[in-house]
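Researcher: Please translate sequence to structure tokens.
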Amino acid sequence: PVVCAGGHCGKAARTLSTSEPDLARVKYCLGRLALIKGSIAYAQVLFEEASEHLRGQSYAESEQGRCHEGLADVQVKLGNANQAVQEYQEACQCFRAARDLRGEANATRKLATIRQDAGMAGEAKELYSEARSLYESAHDADGVKLCDDSVGFQA
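Model: Translation complete:
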């Protein structure tokens, strides 16, 4: 079964709300599904539309971070590492503003993976270490294990 990251799909679908934040959540979840199904261009459109629904919503930093993370994941699939890095960095800023440790950790870990794939082992190790600390602060043992299991990383 496919589960939406963040668990927003069920809530938004149950309420059938047309509020901007709920529309953003639905489009974000559809974007995740499109990405899983390989519809990369459609996923990008959905993540961009979700982000637009959140513009001006001062309380939506975490959701905006997820949109940036989704756009970064699209860029990774397209092989555009530089654009992916920019989107992951934007995601980190949003998650940090929202004090969303798990979101920031996920985006930081994905940045580390890009750096590792680019042969930048030192920077990758620093980013994995940062992500690991964030996961520890969020009491996320699975996230800590993901960092520990990363190639070339040793706690």
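Researcher: Any highlights?
Model: The helical segments are 8-15, 20-37, 40-54, 61-78, 81-97, 101-117, 121-137, 141-148.
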